[in-house]
Amino acid sequence: MSGSRAPQRDRPWWESAVIYQIYPRSFADSDGDGIGDLEGVRHRLDHLVQLGVDAVWLSPIFPSPMVDFGYDIADYCGIEPMFGTLADFDRLIAELHARGLKLLLDFVPNHTSDRHAWFQESRASRDSAKRDWYIWRDPAPDGGPPNNWTSDMGGSAWELDPATGQYYLHAFLREQPDLNWRNPQVREAMHDVLRFWLDRGVDGFRIDVLWHCIKAADLRDNPPNPAFRPELGDKFKVLQHHSANQPEIHEVAAGFRRLTDTYGERLLVGEICLPVETLMQYYGTADAPGVHLPFNFQLLDAPWEAAALARIIGDYDAALPADGWPNWVIGSHDAPRIAGRLGEPQARVAAMLLLTLRGTPTLYQGDELGIGRVDIPPERIRDTQDVRQPGLGLGRDGSRTPMPWDDSVHAGFSTAEPWLPLNADWHTRNVARHHAEPGSMLNLHRDLLALRRAYAALSIGDLTVLAPHGEVLAYERRHDGERLLVALNLTRAPQRLALPDGVTAEVLLSTLPHRHFGGELAPDEGIVLRLEEV
Ligand code: NOJ
Ligand code: MG
Q1: Are strands 55-58 and 19-22 parallel, antiparallel or unpaired?
Q2: C-alpha count within 13 angstroms, C-beta hemisphere, residue 91
Q3: Which member of 54, 269, 409, 505 has the lowest number of beta carbons within 10 Å of its beta carbon?
C-alpha cells in the first residue's frame, strides 16, 4: 500500500478514529461464570490491536440488578462484581492506554435502577429530600396513570407506588425510574459521576438515550400515533412529542460538554434516535455546545438500494453543521445483526461502506466475524423487552450472543455454558479460524481498517457521492491530492462501473479476492480504487 499515514494535525483524535463497541457480558469470560467480565476484556486486547480500532466503548459495567443488563444502574461509581472490581478497571484502562487505545464508558443519565440508593430514598416518603430527584405524580382522577405516555418496553410509562400513593415515571422498564433533570441537585450529582470516571482517566462517554432526559414541564399527554399497529409494540402507541426531545435538553448536554472539555480532548457520543434535521441540533451551538457525535443510526435500517443509500449519505452530509463531524453505525447490542439482514456477501460490502464513509465509524463486536442471525430458543430468552412484550420480535438477545474466539469448548468464551447461546456456526465462524483464513470477514475488516489508517482520504477526506448507476453505490474520497473511489455492488449480478474521465485506477482493496479492475464489479463486490489523473 502506497498511501501516506493519516496526519494527526490539530484535529481531535476521534475524527480519524474507529470506535469498537464491547458488550461486556458477551465479550470474554475470565472466571468461568458464563458471563463476560473486565478481566476477560483485558485478556483479549490483542484482538482489538490486530483489528486496528482506536477506541473501545464499553456498555455499562456498573453495579446493576441486570434487569436491563446494566442499563439499570444501582451505583454509578462502582463496578458490578460480576464484571470485576475497580482495580480490574484501572488495570484495563492502563493496558488499553499502553496500546494507544482510548476508552469510552456508557453514561446512563435518563434513569437509574429502582435499586439505586437515590430512588430508595426518593420512594421512602412524599417528603423525602430526594422525592423530587425522580418524577412523581398523583394518580389521574380515575386512579389511573397521570398521563398517556407509554414505556418503550411496553405498558404505561407510569408505575404506582402503593406505599405513597403516587406514580413514578419510567420511559423504559419499571425497574428504571427516570431521573428529574429539572432538579439542579440531580445535575450536580450526575456531573460528579462524570468527574469520577474522568479522574480515573476515561477518554469520553457514550450517553444513553440523551434525547429522553428532559420531559415537557407540564407532562401533558402525547398525541396518539395514527400509524400505530399493535405489532410495533406499546412504544409506538403515542408520538413522543412531550416525553422526549424538549428544548431544555440542549442545556443539559451543554453541561456535560463544558465539564468534559475541562479535561482536554474528551469525546461525547450521544445516543439519539431522531430524524436527521432534529439530530443535528444535538451538535449544539457556540453558546450551548452539544455532543461531538450524535449517533447516526440510519444504516441500521436503510433500504439496501443504491439510490436510497446515496440519498441518505448525501443528505446527512449536507445537513451537518459547519464544524459538525459525521459518524456512522451499522450494528449495536440493540439492533439486528447486519449479516443477519443482508447475508455474508453483502455484509462484506456493508463493512466496506461503514469503514470508508466520511465520519467516525462504530463497529459492534462480532460484526467483524459476520455473525448472522442467531435464533434464541424460547427457554433461553433473557432480554426483558422480549419477556414483557413476547412474540413481537422485539428481543435483542440475538445480537448479544457471546464472542466465539476459537473452536474449543464454548468457543473459548468461557469454561462454563455461556449466558446466551453461541452463533450456530461458531465452530467455523470464530476469531482463531478467521485469523488463519485469508479473505475471511475478520481479515477483510483488518484490511479495511489498515487502508483507512494508510489513506487520510478515507478517514478525514472529503466525500462526493456519485449519481447511482444501476445498483452500484459509488463515492469519491479526496484529501491532499489523494483521490479514492469506493464502488459497492449491492446486487448478486455483475455491474458496470464507469470511471470518471481522465483517470486510471489501481485496486487497493476488494471484498473479494484481490483482482485487476476491468470496468466491472463482480456480484456482491465492493472495491476501493486509487485514482490517478492521466
Ligand atoms: C439504550 C440502550 O442501548 C438499551 O440497551 C437500553 O435498553 C435503553 N437505552 C435503556 O437504557
Ligand atoms: Mg465472568
Answers
A1: parallel
A2: 14
A3: 409
Rounded to the nearest angstrom, the distance between the alpha carbon of 86 and the centre of ligand 2 is 15
- For ligand 2, the distance from its centroid to the CA atom of residue 371, given in whole angstroms, is 22
Which ligand has an atom closest to residue 38 CA?
Answer: 2
Report the alpha-carbon distance of residue 452 to residue 191 in Å, rounded.
35
CB 373 within 8 A of CB 469: no
- Cα–Cα dist 30/405, whole Å: 13
Pocket-testing residue among 22, 57, 67, 68, ligand 1, by greatest number of atoms within 8 A of Cβ = 68
Nearest ligand atom owner, CA of 413? 2
**pLDDT tens, per residue, the chain with 534 residues:** 333 344 444 899 999 999 999 999 999 999 999 999 999 999 999 999 999 999 999 999 999 999 999 999 999 999 999 999 999 999 999 999 999 999 999 999 999 999 999 999 999 999 999 999 999 999 999 999 999 999 999 999 999 999 999 999 999 999 999 999 999 999 999 999 999 999 999 999 999 999 999 999 999 999 999 999 999 999 999 999 999 999 999 999 999 999 999 999 999 999 999 999 999 999 999 999 999 999 999 999 999 999 999 999 999 999 999 999 999 999 999 999 999 999 999 999 999 999 999 999 999 999 999 999 999 999 999 999 999 999 999 999 999 999 999 999 999 999 999 999 999 999 999 999 999 999 999 999 999 999 999 999 999 999 999 998 889 999 999 999 999 999 999 999 999 999 999 999 999 999 998 778 999 999 999 999 999 999
**Cα(46) to centroid of ligand 2, in Å?**
19
Cell of 425: 456456526
Which three cell numbers, joined as nine digits, stand for 222?
402525547
Ligand 1 binding residues, C-beta < 6 A: 68, 71, 108, 172, 208-209, 271, 333-334
CA distance 25 to 400: 8
Task: Tell the burial category of 229 from Cβ atoms under 10 Å away from its Cβ (0-12, 13-18, 19+).
Answer: exposed
CA-proximal residue: ligand 1, atom 6 (nearest):
71
> Is the pTM higher than 0.90?
yes
